[in-house]
Amino acid sequence: MSKTAHIATFGCQMNAYDSERMAGLLAKMGYARAQGPDTADLIILNTCSVRQRAEQKVYSYVGELKRLKAANPDLIIGVGGCVAQQEGASLLKRLRHLDFVFGTGALERLPELVSQAAEGYRMADTGLDAAPSPEIIVPARPGLKALVTVMTGCDNFCSYCVVPHVRGRERSRPADQVLAEVSALSRAGVREVTLLGQNVNSYQDPDSGLDFAGLLERVNQLPELWRIRFTTSHPKDLGPRLMEALAGLDKVMEQLHLPAQSGSDRVLQAMNRGYTRAQYLERVAELRALLPGLALGGDIIAGFPGESEDEFNETLSLLAEVRYDFLYSFMYSDRPFTRAGRLSGKLSEEAKRERLVRLQALQREIGLEEHGAQVGRVVEVLVEGPAKKGEGLMSGRCRAGRAVNFPGPPELAGRLARVRITEGREHSLLGELESAGEVKKP
Ligand code: 5AD
Ligand code: SF4
């Protein structure tokens, strides 16, 4: 019987992509996908340390694996990703049931580490300087949508953020490699790709110097691909070329994630974000003028050290001014290695939570209004399959990235449908099918 591996993924889309790569490398070693951790011969944790809560989740998951190891001493357990990078060999000391630790730069060495662990060696590999591997890995059974990393790491050092410390410096993948990967995915049936980087605006092809707008132009030419999204854009680096690509390239969807983090100039400066509130709003106005249908997403941190009530109110007013379609909001969380961790004026958990609740209440109102404004419009939906909730409903996303549910036959999966919106809910839109287009090629 073949060996099986289970990969538990925590955190962002970058980790989801890395987990796919890990699965590809393990498949080459003969590991099939396990049904779950209980029956696996190998368990990999791909971890996140962006906030304390994320890190705690990893430790409680690791704790639960102790009983599996006790029942099956041959079980191999490896921890990868950002917590692995952050903690390194100390994880092996503290958690005796772990077999190996591999950081974010050691992903491609996973096969060696697994082989060594099978021979009884306990190792930690946390070298960060490796360039992204040129290998193209396409999942055995890709779905309609896929993630492709175009750059790794971050040079921005926002004062609250652990990412530059656990992902290293910015490195762009050569455009030819990205193209080859997206092209292989689209030939295997993928119709929508999301290009990933901590800061895609500073993408630069190491060979030709091509920028991100140029990369989008090339991806836009792949015939089997229908849709392109990308994330994340840093407001300080969002220039006219990218704005024009967003507006002008037919396959690039009308959606942009543009994290503001705060609406207060003093806090933005303390965060080392590199823009002011006015500059942020100016970019938003330019974008909206160019692309009136654009859905904007944002990230906000509530309760940054020293944030006053007035400064927080400036964030609320930024929300009201921008009117995001989707917002991720977080309570500030102390992270190792960061400058903000050493600042005075930390807020209590209750104070941060209270601000987060206010942020979310305001966003709920705005989101409902924005969704309500969609009623009567006809949108293009890439149909993914039956809706999780709701009998007989099919589900997909419109070009702006909103979830759309509508009554329709299961055969629509994999097709583009035109749907008239009849109701705007908090997290999704309801609609009626007008017509359906091309079938997904196998
Ligand atoms: N505390 C709270 N939120 C954080 N983020 C990053 N670091 C922290 C932190 N220390 C948020 C930012 C970022 C998103 C991915 O996570 O909003 O954009
Ligand atoms: Fe973190 Fe700032 Fe880099 Fe984003 S841009 S990953 S918030 S340091």
Question: What would the keywords be for this entry?
Answer:
single chain; 442 residues; alpha/beta; Rossmann fold; pyruvate-formate lyase- activating enzyme; OB fold (Dihydrolipoamide Acetyltransferase, E2P); 3 domains; binds 5'-deoxyadenosine; binds iron/sulfur cluster
| Biggest sheet, spatial arrangement of strands | 2-1-3-4-5-6
Separate helix tally = 13
- Strand fraction: 15-25%
Q: Let me know the average pLDDT.
A: 95
Name given to the CATH homologous superfamily of the largest domain: tm_1862 like domain
- Residue windows where pLDDT falls under 50 for at least 5 positions: none
What does this structure look like?
By secondary structure, the chain is α/β, with parallel strands linked by helices. It folds into three domains: 3-125, Rossmann fold (3-Layer(aba) Sandwich); 145-371, pyruvate-formate lyase- activating enzyme (Alpha-Beta Horseshoe); 378-436, Beta Barrel (OB fold (Dihydrolipoamide Acetyltransferase, E2P)). It has 13 helices and 19 strands. The protein has helices at 13-28, 52-71, 81-87, 90-94, 110-118, 163-167, 175-187, 212-220, 240-248, 265-270, 277-290, 309-322, 349-372; strands spanning 4-9, 32-33, 42-47, 76-80, 100-102, 123-125, 145-149, 151-152, 171-172, 192-196, 227-231, 255-257, 295-302, 326-331, 378-386, 393-398, 403-407, 416-424, 429-436. The strands form five sheets. Strands 2-1-3-4-5-6 form a six-stranded parallel sheet, with helices on both faces. Helix 1 links the parallel strand 1 (4-9) and strand 2 (32-33). The longest helix is centred in the C-terminal third of the chain and has 24 residues, at 349-372. The mean pLDDT is 95. Bound molecules: 5'-deoxyadenosine and iron/sulfur cluster. Residues 154, 156-158, 161, 163-164, 198-199, 234 line the site of iron/sulfur cluster (SF4).
